[in-house]
């Protein structure tokens, strides 16, 4: 009898939730195309979160519906998806997208509509300066400026005097070139070569030969996903013996799978979630990262998690309490007014512990991460089992 009563109560709660109008959140990710290794874990994470949130009663008693669109790693499709979510689906906010160029493309339609967006891409220009357009835009990944610091510190500790750079020929690569060159100059490291390649290139031999002619002590590859394996493999094939660095854009299992032995020894800055199990117990977001990884691996398999799914998790960690606060102040039926209130509540975020750090936003800071809590230095090593692994080199706290 008791079990039957509990079952009826649970059924009643489920029916009550189902009868409520859903809180529609738009999601744009790169689940296919060159950035798929980043966008897939972002999409998967939000699928987990939607199931989990609604199973526990939704937000303020209302179900959450993530309307997920794949932009195929294409800026035009990302902009088209943004307009559809705003104009046809009437979403309250948007999470996404995966890549820097596409996230930059989404700024104008979001600002025109007056809808808050939490980007999952790295470039600082997505959120800075916080002008009339970018007041609607927030993000969760660390910036190139933040992640250049650990790279340069590590180079200096390893006696690097000269370095070369090769990066994507788009906003992501240019942002990294600018940030790295500034950090290197301040540290007394001379950048002797700066090259570019396309995400879809199949050869970078010319660029690598020009870099090798300058004989740099280290090379930084400014790319994301699996595409940065190409210049690293070419460097190895041409006999380069110096240090090779990558950005946090490669912190995913597919980079190890595609790179194989060519990426052993790679050093890169990453969000602490990448090596959560190697962090000291005092690290502030270790427990959150561990909990997320356990949830993700329970659904998608051991070793399947990446830092990019963590960015999506963190976006929801910021958005959910902002939604709860906004719902106390405005009705979602008044869509324009609610979006404005929600924007204000996201900007009011304080002390939200995510998988990558602790987020505290302000009117001039729409990321809100401190470098010391949001970055660690890692190295790719071959473990005892023969599989490639991420090894924690140092933290910066």
Automatic annotation (TrEMBL):
Keyword Ligase: no
Pfam families reported for this sequence: Peripla_BP_6
Domain of life: Bacteria
Leucine-binding protein domain: residues covered: 22-366
Signal peptide from the UniProt entry: 1-18
The entry's keywords: Receptor, Signal
KW Nucleus (keyword) present: no
Family of this protein: Belongs to the leucine-binding protein family.
The name this protein goes by in its record: Extracellular ligand-binding receptor
Organism encoding this protein: Allomeiothermus silvanus (strain ATCC 700542 / DSM 9946 / NBRC 106475 / NCIMB 13440 / VI-R2)
């Amino acid at each position: 009898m008791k079990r039957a009563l509990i079952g009826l109560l649970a059924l009643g709660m489920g029916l009550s939730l189902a009868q409520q109008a859903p809180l529609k959140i738009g999601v744009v990710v790169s689940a296919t195309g060159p950035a798929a290794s980043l966008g897939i874990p972002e999409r998967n994470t939000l699928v987990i979160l939607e199931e989990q949130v609604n199973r526990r009663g939704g937000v303020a008693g209302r179900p959450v519906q993530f309307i997920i669109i794949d932009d195929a790693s294409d800026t035009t499709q990302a902009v088209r998806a943004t307009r559809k979510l705003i104009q046809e689906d009437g979403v309250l906010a948007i999470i996404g997208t995966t890549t820097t160029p596409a996230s930059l493309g989404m700024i104008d339609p979001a600002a025109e509509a007056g809808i808050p967006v939490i980007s999952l891409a790295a470039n600082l220009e997505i959120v800075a300066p916080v002008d009339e357009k970018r007041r609607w835009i927030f993000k969760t990944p660390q910036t190139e400026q933040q992640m250049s610091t650990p790279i340069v510190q590590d180079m200096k500790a390893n006696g690097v005097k000269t370095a070369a750079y090769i990066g994507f020929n788009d906003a992501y690569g240019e942002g990294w070139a600018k940030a790295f060159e500034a950090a290197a100059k301040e540290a007394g490291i001379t950048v002797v070569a700066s090259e570019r390649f396309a995400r879809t290139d199949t050869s970078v031999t010319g660029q690598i030969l020009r870099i090798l002619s300058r004989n740099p002590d280290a090379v930084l590859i400014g790319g994301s996903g699996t595409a940065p394996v190409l210049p690293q493999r070419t460097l190895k094939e041409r006999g380069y013996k110096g240090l090779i660095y990558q950005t946090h854009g490669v912190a995913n299992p597919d980079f190890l799978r595609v790179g194989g032995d060519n990426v052993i020894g790679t050093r890169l800055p990453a969000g602490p979630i990448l090596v959560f199990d190697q962090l000291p117990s005092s690290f502030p977001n270790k427990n959150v990262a561990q909990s997320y990884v356990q949830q993700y691996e329970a659904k998608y398999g051991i070793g399947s998690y990446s830092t990019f799914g963590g960015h999506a998790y963190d976006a929801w960690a910021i958005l959910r309490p902002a939604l709860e606060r906004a719902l106390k102040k405005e009705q979602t039926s008044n869509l324009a007014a609610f979006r404005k209130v929600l924007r204000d509540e996201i900007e009011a975020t304080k002390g939200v512990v995510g998988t990558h750090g602790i987020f505290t936003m302000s009117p001039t800071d729409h990321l809100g991460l401190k470098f010391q809590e949001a970055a660690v230095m890692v190295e790719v090593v071959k473990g005892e089992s023969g599989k490639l692994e991420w090894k924690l080199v140092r933290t910066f706290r």
